[in-house]
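ok trying again, last paste got cut off:
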Amino acid sequence: MTERRLPPPLRFLLAARRSELQGLEALAGTCELVVRISALVHALQKERGYSNLTLCSPPRRLQPTLAGLSQDAASVEAQARQFLDGEAADSAQGSGRARLLNCIAFALFRLDELPALRRHVRDRSVPVEDADSRFTQVIGSLLAVVFEAADSALDPGVTRILVALLNFMQGKELSGQERACGVTGFTAGYFTDTQKARMLGLAANQRRSFDTYAHYAEGAARQCWAELQQQDPPVQRMRDMAQHTSSEQRVDGALAELWFNLSTARIDAMREVESLLAEALAQQCNRRIAETRQELNDRRLLLSRYADHASGRAPSMLYSVQSRVVDTPPPDGMGSELERSILDMMREQTLRLQRTDDALNAVRGALDEKKRIDRAKLLLISHYGLTEQAAHERLQRAAMDAGLALADVARQVIGQLGGQSGGQLDGN
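nice, full thing came through this time. structure:
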């Protein structure tokens, strides 16, 4: 019997499973986008790092290397844009993904600013701090796409990997920002109090991001990160050195390149972890799609057999599951066995969907923290007219002063500014 000739309850039972399959197939496309964005972020992080070093070094010494990195980043960007063009053409996949698509639009807007920024860096017509900030804004917009992808995923296993990847990318990005700050300080020969505080904050936030990553990561990706952490001591020693500098206690400006090289080696090694996460993501998507497709085919066969046995009759139990005692022994062989199988299938599907929701709620805890931080930043921007970066720095300073996690400070800000202006963060 063809599917369209099945009784309505059976058709809808199959439609529910088919909807899951379609959702997983769309999710696989989203995960591929995330992998491409991860590669683009890495390329832009390398370009940003060498842009900072170039602007702090004698003219033309590092220009050839920077030109090659800019070309590499532009090539990766072109590949990502080509993939996005295909996504935009598939309007069916846009349903229920408005926030994700909006983030993509904003990221593309930021990416459009890169050619002009590259010209300014090449011409040395932009301060190093401004160049760093503008690259960071571009990267931040791409990380927002990864966040929305994780938040919109409907499979717990996939969501878990996406949350791990997001937090690892955030930690890696903070490492890149720390690299830039260190280059500026070591080039000058000492770190100001503001720069010291920023270095401490960036290191602390890295630890939190990587701790969250380790909580959600599994298998080879987690083991690889554990091994890479053993390479941190040289970076930590230079962090300590930075904290002991002053205008009276300067260090050799040549240490800037040593710091840059050590930080770059550390960040480049992190790319291996991202690659392992990307591999795990693809495997999980493929596995779930294969499982769901097989289950759909099995159910289609079972329900067709039942419909053929019932000769087109729609038993009342299919319309009112509660009207029948499921555990009653079947009185008439094949037909009742199939009836019971269908009832079990409906109950199992309901329970499985509930378990999926519970698992998703559990794994999204880290995403909820980021939402809270973003809301707090928006409140600070609205109340005090701050830029996004200034709002984030205010939250970081408040967290450091109070010895609290950033998410806890964000909760306080929401409580203070959600219903009133003012509070303890005034004037910070």
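cool. Residues 312-335, 421-428 have pLDDT under 50 and may be disordered. The chain has two domains: 10-288, 366-417.
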